[in-house]
């Protein structure tokens, strides 16, 4: 199975580091976020990895070349001309995945102990179109699921905005963990083009296609989105 590490973001919340470097190369206990996620995938025998680049792309390419891809076969998806967000970035990299095969995506600033083998078993058992790793942690924005763990919508708990795509008697809020599994048919059903987020893509497809949430509450998890997150990450990940 192949995986894609989303590494093209501008990292505006991570200044001043991102004034001169890509966030993917921010260091946590001596290792970059990118290296940590490549090595995390190794634990589950995933060594074919797509990395998209935009912000200081040459630094990422040099780091990967100097370290022989940290033991993985790296495929670069170059977004130097325009950052495409997660959805557009994945669509641009479509040709790097194998038709008919499931694949995984992870945001480079996410560190977690989520068991990918268990996640993949859930994905295949459910015959899921897309599976989203989620937890019950508190977040201002969350996905909404029914009693069968199927995605029904999205909510912003601060503003009250919500986008409900499937009605259900019981609804549960869960926070997205930045890790997803896809059936390749996702590309065949996707109507969005250009620059767009995966959240918009999933919501556009949720009514007609089974998208499920996999609750991994209790695993270690941190979003290294801001400089103050580094201390939290270093306490959790040696």
List the helices and strands and how they pair.
Elements: E1 2-6, E2 27-28, E3 31-32, H1 33-42, E4 48-53, H2 57-66, E5 73-78, H3 85-92, E6 103-107, E7 110-112, H4 116-125, E8 130-135, E9 141-145, E10 151-156, E11 162-164, E12 172-182, H5 185-189, H6 198-205, E13 211-215, E14 221-223, H7 229-236
Parallel strand pairs: 1-4, 1-6, 4-5, 8-13
Antiparallel strand pairs: 2-3, 6-12, 7-14, 8-12, 9-10, 9-12, 10-11
Structure, described:
It is built from seven helices and 14 strands. It has helices at 33-42, 57-66, 85-92, 116-125, 185-189, 198-205, 229-236, and strands at 2-6, 27-28, 31-32, 48-53, 73-78, 103-107, 110-112, 130-135, 141-145, 151-156, 162-164, 172-182, 211-215, 221-223. The mean pLDDT is 97. Helix 3 (85-92) packs across helix 6 (198-205). It starts with a strand and ends with a helix. The longest helix is centred in the N-terminal third of the chain and has 10 residues, at 33-42.
What oligomeric state best describes the polypeptide chains here?
Answer: single chain
* Radius of gyration using CA atoms only: 17 Å
Runs with pLDDT <50, length 5+? none
Give the H and E element order. EEEHEHEHEEHEEEEEHHEEH
Helix content: 10-25%
Distance between the termini: 27 Å
- Sheet-strand content, in percent, reads 25-35%
Structural class: alpha/beta
Mean pLDDT across all amino acids: 97
State the helix count.
7
The total beta strand count reads 14
Backbone shape: globular
Main beta sheet, described?
10 strands, mixed
